[in-house]
Amino acid sequence: MKIGILSDTHLPRLTANFRDICDRYLSDAEVIFHAGDFTSAEVVTFLSAKAFYGVSGNMDPVEVKALLSDKRVIELGGYRFGLIHGWGSSNGLEERLRPQFQDVDVIVYGHSHRAANHVRDGILFFNPGTATGFSSSETHSIGLLECGDKIKGTILDID
Fold this sequence. Notes:
18% helix; five-stranded mixed beta sheet
């Protein structure tokens, strides 16, 4: 199973660029996760056309928060995924997120706009970075999780 991972898109509306990113990089993903800060319910609706799981982020408006919880656990392919946005400083973010989930294999998060893909205490911490971000000076990326006998995470830079 291939899971496409997005976070921190910060789009006030659905854009042609975002559609292109999804078509180019996520078309063969069986499931899409978005770890919050959509900033537009239109993006939630667009992603919901596929198998989709998302959570709201600190920058999301009331319309998005009405559609999505702030954290969730998803069971797919024999694995348990904790999905959450995050809050506060980027420093210590993973330490604040870990107690939010019990008995998960992966914690997918966002908030920092910094990609992460590493195992800590037997849990894969995975942050796709930001595909569209706030400014053109940011590095733009998305993530892929491939789930089979084990989980393999990949960060893809967006050009």
